[in-house]
Design goal:
With about 250 residues, the protein is mainly beta. About 10% of the residues lie in helices and about 30% in strands. The chain has one domain (about 5-235): hypothetical protein yedk fold (Alpha-Beta Complex), CATH 3.90.1680.10. It has four helices and twelve strands, in the order βαββββαββββββαβα. The strands form two sheets. Strands 3, 4, 5, 6, 9, 10 and 11 form a seven-stranded mixed β-sheet that branches. A five-stranded antiparallel β-sheet has the order 2-1-7-8-12, with no helix packed on it. A hairpin with a 2-residue loop joins strand 7 (about 100-105) and strand 8. The radius of gyration is 18 Å and the shape is globular.
Length: about 250
């Protein structure tokens, strides 16, 4: 799935790749988290750059404060889920990125990894959006990233991965004029085996306040030892039953 991601490419490089008309100037981000505004590419008489809240609010939600945090949408059920079935037909979009983080359970802790294209090129995450309108007429553009089953290599980290759209398929994914999603069903799949690479990173990424280039670096032996010592000093957390459907939880 996708619970944190990064954008490090230059704004103009992303503009050229995604073909939107605007010329936004935004800084690199190394630890983008749910509920934050994120760059999104839409198609509406040409491609456009928008900022949207990461965490989809369907139009029928009365009070977002009481609604589940929907940061991901499962490709297998996106056509049927009330929160997504209209958005997948009418409001498909792309989220530019350069990689994302995943956490692998190792013993009693979760080790973070940075995952990126092996060739280093930027990524276009498949996504769907909704504009929520409040009781006083306020509007909030919101978005969720589509996920699919992981290939065999990425599945060692997590069984879900973001759906990535190839540049040649950007137009096909964004084109919602037919008001149906059958034409893009074949695009909603995870990366091919070997397409992505990854490495362990510091647990500093666990804290959203940390947002610097050091987060992307492979963890050093000294950092790993320090983190092991810190974990050894912490009391074991009380275990509770939980169900992870890969859509709403952060990790």
């Amino acid at each position: 799935m996708c619970g944190r991601f990064v954008i490090t490419s230059a704004p103009e490089a992303l503009r050229q790749l995604f073909g939107y008309l605007e010329q936004p100037n935004f800084p690199s981000r190394y630890n983008i988290a749910p509920t934050q505004p994120i760059p999104v590419v839409i198609s509406d008489n040409g491609r456009h750059f928008r900022l949207m809240r990461w965490g989809l609010w369907p139009a029928w939600v009365k009070d977002p404060r009481k609604f589940t945090l929907l940061i991901n949408a499962r490709a297998e059920s996106i056509h049927d889920k009330p929160a997504f079935k209209n958005a997948i037909r009418r409001r498909r979009c792309l989220v530019p990125a350069d990689g994302y983080y995943e956490w692998q359970s190792i013993g009693n802790h979760k080790q973070p990894y940075f995952i990126h294209r092996r060739d280093g090129r930027p990524i276009g995450f498949a996504a769907v959006s909704e504009t929520w309108v409040g009781p006083n007429g306020e509007e909030v553009d919101t978005v969720a990233i589509v996920t699919a089953a992981a290939s065999a290599d990425l599945a060692v980290l997590h069984h879900r991965v973001p759906v990535t759209i190839a540049p040649d398929d950007f137009e096909r994914w964004l084109d919602c004029r037919s008001d149906e999603a059958d034409s893009v069903a074949s695009l909603m799949r995870g990366p091919e085996e070997g397409e992505f690479a990854w490495h362990e990173v510091s647990m500093r990424v666990n804290h959203v306040a940390n947002d610097d280039a050091q987060l992307l670096l492979p963890i050093t032996a000294e950092e790993r030892e320090a983190e092991q010592v810190k974990r050894a000093k912490k009391p074991s957390p009380r275990k509770t039953a939980a169900v992870d459907d890969g859509q709403g939880s952060l990790f």
